[in-house]
Amino acid sequence: MNVEKNKILIVDDFIENLQIACNILQSAGYSLSIASNGSKAIEIARNFLPDLILLDIMMPEMDGYEVCAYLKNNELTKEIPIIFLTAKIEPGSIGKAFEMGAVDYIAKPFNEIELLARVKTHIDLKRSMETIKEQNHQMEALIQSREKLFSIIAHDLKSPLSNLIGFSDILLRKFESFPPEKTTQFVKIIYDSAKRGNDLLENLLEWSRIQTGRLVASLIDFDIHPVIMDCLALYESTAKSKEIEIDNQVQKEAFVYADINMVKTILRNLISNALKFTFPFGKISIMANQMQDNLSISILDNGVGMNSEDINKLFDPQLNFSKVGTKKEKGSGLGLVLCDVFVKENNGKIEVYSTVGKGSEFKLTIPLSKQML
Predict the structure, then answer these.
(1) Strand 82-86's sheet: what is its strand order?
(2) For residue range 269-322, what is the model confidence (pLDDT) as tens digits?
(3) Which one of 1.20.58.90, 3.40.50.150, 3.40.50.2300, 3.90.1150.10 gives the CATH number of domain 3-133?
(4) 187-201 burial string, b = 16+ CB within 10 Å, else e?
(5) Which residue among 164, 180, 284, 347 is least crowded, i.e. fewest CB within 10 A of its CB?
């Protein structure tokens, strides 16, 4: 244990006692703060937030019991362990100390070995409790994440899988009797369903990496133009089926410094989102603009748009916010949440501007490659 990281507040109205305790604990490397009365102790405790408080019982105006009661009823200080310092070791006095919330007591005059041992024991206990609480918090988060994943898998994968099974079964049984245009229509439905299921699975895998702490950004210099072109190729069929025009104005050799796989995920989700909420025969534009040491990429559509209330819900992982697209397309709500997490991992930001009935702009800003500066 590195004691230099552990803070102790010593409260006693006798300067000699303070000096003795300070000398012992400072020589052991603890960080100390002192108070000679109850009101000062409370003020320091709230600001200093020590790991342990050594509190004298017998003090004028406000005794140790009153100070302890106040600290234990305060949200900021209630978890700080308190050891009473006392010359009174009668059972009634010690019993009252424990009733007030103390974890231990030390008799005065101080025994150096006892003081150091008790201080170390209770700071170690506090650290152990903090570790357990953090582990419990992480476990709860993992459980919630697992339940969220199961819910999404059960709900959102059901539709594309049903389409895959249903329409492929019909084709298998009636392929020879179908006219070519009907076969093409069914194949298109099967392809779109498979694509939607694949996109969802990719997002689920990325979300799983985030929740299990396996998310590590690997920053490199790369040209974002071919990345955008690859993402557009993934959604070429979707754009054609809705007869949506995509105008990519991003020039070649627009180099950025980021994690290429995370940027691909961001762009894939933003393009998919724009296609989902753009009406048939609509238009999507992709533009880039260099700003000092960053590159901003805007994906604009002339689709349904959003109000400010919906915009505020987009990146909240607790809400699973999602709406049905212009052709009844469904989603999990994970895509934009992933975008927000990945953008932050790449030292960038994402902004949304939208007007109901006129369309939306998602503006991604990430650092430029140093060779572009």
Answers:
(1) 31-35, 7-11, 52-56, 82-86, 104-107
(2) 899 899 999 999 999 999 999 988 999 999 999 999 999 999 999 988 777 678
(3) 3.40.50.2300
(4) eebbebbebbbebbe
(5) 180
Q: What is the radius of gyration, based on Cα positions, of the chain?
A: 31
Structural class in CATH, domain 217-373: alpha beta
pLDDT-based confidence at residue 81 (cuts at 50, 70, 90): very high
CA distances from 224 to 199, 264, 284, 291 (A): 21, 9, 18, 16
pTM: 0.56
Identify the H or E element spanning 142: helix 112-156
Q: List all residues 6 or more positions away from 355 whose beta carbon is below 8 Å from its beta carbon.
A: 305
Q: Which of 56, 46, 105 is nearest to 79 (CA)?
A: 46
Identify the H or E element spanning 162.
helix 158-174
- Tens digits of per-residue pLDDT, 170-183? 888 888 888 888 88
* Environment class of 150 (CB within 10 Å of its CB; exposed 0-12, middle 13-18, buried 19+): exposed
Instruction: State how far Cα 100 lies from the chain centre.
Output: 37
Domain residue spans of the chain: 3-133, 157-215, 217-373
pLDDT, one tens digit per residue, over 14-73 is 999 999 999 999 999 999 999 999 999 999 999 989 999 999 998 888 999 999 999 999
* Nearest Cα to Cα of residue 185 among 196, 170, 199: 170
* Helix 15-27 with 112-156: angle, nearest 10 deg: 60
Q: Which two tokens stand for residue 114?
A: 């006892």
Q: What is the residue-wise DSSP string for 246-306?
A: EEE-PPS--EEEE-HHHHHHHHHHHHHHHHHTSPTT-EEEEEEEEETTEEEEEEEE-SS--
